[in-house]
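Hey team,

Filing this mostly as a record. A colleague (T.K.) asked me to run one chain through the structure pipeline before their review meeting, and I want the input and output archived in the tracker in case anyone asks later how it was produced. No errors, nothing strange. Just documentation.

Input sequence:
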Amino acid sequence: MAQKNPDTVHTDVLSAARQACYKARDAFYVCLEKESIKKPTEIASVGLLYPVDCKKSRAQFEKQCRPTWVKHFDRQYASKKRLQRLLDDNESRRGPLSLPQPYTFKPTN
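Output structure:
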């Protein structure tokens, strides 16, 4: 979308604001990892659930970052956790693939 004034500087995308956003984001996700054994009861964007103990860091994260960034980081985190769960889920899936050998079936006469 075109801005009315293209020379306007959005302060939330400047380096200091980005660093504050990243710091708040990291604090929230560290809290999620630390409190992962507790039941998640709060709902974030994109269906991400988190425990009530992380509510304060979540509020700080949402305050420091643009809403679109929060949504992006939540999607990124959920995607990474989903992939990790798939990789760690079933130990039998690890290792070399066992492909069917040729002539597994007896030929019919």
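Quick notes for T.K.: The CA atoms of residues 9 and 76 lie 27 Å apart. The radius of gyration is 23 Å.
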